[in-house]
Amino acid sequence: MHTPRKTSRSRRDRGPWWAAYERVAEHAYALGRLPRLSDGVPAAVVGWAAGQRRATMLTADQKAALRALPGWSDRPRADAWEKRAEELRRFITAEGRPPRVRGTLPGESALAHWYSRQRVAEADGRLSSERVRLLAYATRSI
């Protein structure tokens, strides 16, 4: 089992936060990512991990332990957006064109829909300047 920090105290003395962390860590290391409900992991374990992103009273040890978990991110939505922008960049580089809604390549239609939503958000002024910059980078060759 993963031990996030060195301590001379027994596991029982570490407190409820560390006990919950150990439950999440056990699943995360077995899966190679944070557990999901679809993995058959109890909702309390999945919910605890999600709740730690909103926690404001974490110690430096606790923050470091969370960052060490496979798949942990302090900003999962931003990371997912950036990953999708990178997928768009790779698609355009490989195919020499933007993805098409009626495209035949695996995942092309979903990527085309995502790209369309980003262009609409940009036109409406709802895309941050950082995302506008990343989208421009991803599509620079078209």
Structural notes for this entry:
Helices cover 57% and strands 0% of the residues. With 142 residues, the chain is mostly helical. The chain contains 6 helices and no strands. The longest helix has 20 residues, at 76-95.
In whole angstroms, the N-to-C terminal distance is 49 Å
Write the H/E string, N to C: HHHHHH
Rg over CA atoms: 20 Å
How would a crystallographer describe the biggest sheet? none
Outline of this structure?
The chain has 6 helices and no strands. By secondary structure, the chain is mainly alpha-helical.
Relevant terms:
mainly alpha
Question: How would the blueprint of this fold be written?
Answer:
Layout: H1 16-31, H2 43-52, H3 60-68, H4 76-95, H5 108-123, H6 129-138
